[in-house]
Amino acid sequence: MRYPLVELATALLFAGIAALVGLTWALPAYLYLAGIAVPLALIDLQVRRLPDQIVLPSYAVALVLLTVASAGTGDWAALLRALVGGVSLFALYALIFVVKPGGMGLGDVKLAGVLGLYLAWWGWDALAVGGFLAFLIGGLIAVGLILFTSAGRRSKMPFGPAMLAGAFLALIVAAPVGDWYLGLTGLST
């Protein structure tokens, strides 16, 4: 039963990404992200780790596919933004990993860099919203586990699925959320 569900989830994610991104130069890059998201989430849920065999090659694949997308669109600023975003999100997670030992796994840190590439290529608002949503979704899941299961405050939970969900949700809502926030601050354009 598991295999058909994995295939269905992947197909639905592919369809959603195709509808969101459209037939653009960026589509292969975001389909690749969707392709690794389902196995990463399931593996993290099952064994609480994000395998290097999937995460580490994703840096090279993302860089190649996002470079092709930037070349195809002529938007080299998006590629530079992706590089800065990938390093920034990786650095933020690495800092959390060092400051709060045991609060986050090294796999989460590695995945953060990959997600930072994709989110920042999409836009700065996607990077900010995606980074925030990962912690919001993770926190909501943790509260639910504490309230409705035997989990406690110190229980370990896989964070990769929340990171991935936050990233995909950010691709959808980043622009309106960013506009809303800038409107609140009086900085809207």
UniProtKB/TrEMBL annotation:
Organism annotation: Kineococcus aurantiacus
PANTHER family on file: PREPILIN LEADER PEPTIDASE_N-METHYLTRANSFERASE-RELATED, TYPE 4 PREPILIN-LIKE PROTEINS LEADER PEPTIDE-PROCESSING ENZYME
GO BP: methylation; signal peptide processing
GO molecular function: aspartic-type endopeptidase activity; methyltransferase activity
Every Prepilin type IV endopeptidase peptidase domain range: 33-143
Residues annotated as transmembrane: 12-42, 54-72, 78-99, 130-150, 162-182
This protein's name: Leader peptidase (Prepilin peptidase)/N-methyltransferase
Family: Belongs to the peptidase A24 family.
